[in-house]
Amino acid sequence: MCQTNVVYWVLLYWTDQVDLAEAQLKGIPVFNSPYQNSRSVAELIIANIINLARQLGDKNKEMHGKIWNKTAKGCFEVRGKVLGIVGYGHIGSQLSVLAEALGMIVRFYDIEDVLALGNSKKLKSLEEILKSSDFVTLHVPDTPHTRNLITEREIKLMKKGSFLLNASRGSVVDIKALATALKSGHLGGVYVDVFPSEPNGNSNVWESELQGCPNTLLTPHIGGSTTEAQDAIGLEVARKFILYLETGSTQGAVNFPNQSLPIIDGTHRILNIHKNMPGVLKAINNILSVFNVESQILLTKGEIGYLMVDVSADTSESIREEISRLPTSIKTRILY
Question: 210 and 133, same structural domain?
Fold first, then answer.
């Protein structure tokens, strides 16, 4: 049996617009599906590397403005050029393979010890990537260490005429410094899909310092906006729904301890979300000590603890009632 009154949120890939701490205190797990759009983002970066190399954004604008400007000046092939990838995770590694297929030389930097695919090579620092790359593309999460990762200082380290692409997080790049580098000619062009401030919905009014800059491609956070990515996300979301509702698994939750237990036949599973305070585990174990417990796991994260315990079917309701009466309990339910 599964008691209702269960609330959960699933986000497609970003969780920026959710108060994760408040959801946690209310016993609401927030899930996301961060990897199912990886291929879509990687392909979009490849497309815009070529677009920047051929100044296609500016050429397209000129043609729509009735200007015929056929020239090879400042346009080149990407074959043989160095692509520097900052963040070699799901997206960065896929991009690495696609870029090599185009004949690009791939270098990357990541704070983790990750396996280099193909002929790509890991460099020792971000500075090495910036100084040696013709194209620099960012694929990092939003953390205190990545906010303002690329400022005026880092941009000055980049090769004159090189290109920067950002489809990760808007907080990673100093947009004003980027616009200055474009107008001065230090950078040859940029592609940006994410911004420090974005509308909550579609809007006809949106402004950025990058508007009007030369060879600058801007898109409204569409890195994962493909039919294939949305299909994959839908399947992943459904899987997490089912696992949470049927087994209590919180694997993939961003504001809950990530844990799961295998199902044991002939038992009932009790889930308890409680305030993370000293003495809670002792109080719970005092209740469980007089019953037969088949399995038990308790992990904490931030302000909460999450208990999963399998007990005999004939004792589950009694245990649930006692645990739910604890002053530290936020939510308690029986799954099966």
Answer: yes
Closest of 31, 2, 30 to residue 333, by C-alpha: 2
Residue 251 shares a structural domain with residue 168: no
126-165 residue pLDDT tens: 999 999 999 999 999 999 999 999 999 999 999 999 999 9
Q: Final residue of a domain: which of 186, 218, 250?
A: 218
Task: Look at residue 2 and tell me if it is in a domain.
Answer: no
169 is catalytic: yes
Q: Is residue 79 part of a domain?
A: yes
Residue in 43, 198, 209, 294 annotated catalytic: 198
The rounded percent of the chain whose pLDDT value lies above 70 is 95
Phi, psi (rounded to 5 degrees) for 125: -150, 160
Question: Does residue 101 lie within any of the structural domains?
Answer: yes
Is the CB of residue 289 less than 8 Å from the CB of residue 66? no
Q: Lowest mean pLDDT of 47-51, 231-235, 286-290, 293-297, name the range.
A: 231-235
Which pair of tokens denotes residue 152?
Answer: 């005026």
Q: Give the residue from 307, 241, 248, 250 showing the smallest Cα distance to 276.
A: 307
Q: How far apart are CA 268 and CA 250, in angstroms?
A: 18
What's the pLDDT tens digit per position in 178-192?
999 999 999 999 999
What is the count of structural domains for the chain? Answer: 2
C-alpha span between 217 and 190 (Å, rounded): 6
Dump pLDDT digits (tens) for 92-127. 999 999 999 999 999 999 999 999 999 999 999 999
Helices 227-247 and 38-53: angle between axes, nearest 10 degrees = 160
Residue 4 in this model has a pLDDT that exceeds 60:
no
From the list 139, 169, 269, 320, the catalytic residue is: 169
Catalytic site includes residue 221: yes
Say whether both 153 and 47 belong to one domain. Answer: yes
Selected catalytic residue, list 186, 221, 239, 303: 221
* C-alpha dist (Å) from residue 121 to 85, 133, 308: 10, 12, 44
Q: Residue 316 is part of which domain span?
A: 9-34+227-334
- Per-residue pLDDT band for 2 (boundaries 50, 70, 90) equals very low
